[in-house]
Specification:
twelve-stranded antiparallel β-sheet; 5 helices; 22% helix; globular; disordered N terminus; LolA/LolB/LppX; Outer-membrane lipoprotein LolB
Length: 186
Amino acid sequence: MRASVLCMILLALAGCGSIKTFDAEQGQQMSQQQRLDIRQWNMQGRLLIKSNEVLTANIQWQHNKQRDVLKLSGALGLGAILIELREHEIVLYDAHGDKQVSQDIDAFIARQIGFIVPITALRCWVLGAYLQGVPVEQLGNGFQQLGWRIAYDEYMTTSVGVLPRRIKVTKENIKLKLIVDQWEIQ
């Protein structure tokens, strides 16, 4: 009886939050240029980073021409972490309000979590676009760039078209999975 009631509750909750999704083939409707033309966006979702350790967090990412602001909550049980990215600088505020600044963005992130995460490239990859001026190899459901494989397993409808919902970024033993729950495009 309890199992039946639990199943009914889960089905009801799943129905309330349904998102219209598309597979990789359908999701490639927007061109590379259309994706790069998106200048300001907000995204909310969940992030999993797996290497020797597993890190999970809820993520809120605001992007505009001047900067990116990422709020990670639940990361390592330490509370919220706020990351501000500018073109050549990263500022990290930990849960205690302590501030750290670096001019070497990717190396700074690597020192914080113990391995390299291509956060500067993720600005484009999260939209389903690859970095301009950097060699890229097209694959069936994504591409390979900078030694990373970026796969788009699922897309969702937004106000400007279809954008990625489930993204996998892998290199050797490092795996990032991002599930987008909401896109807001300005």
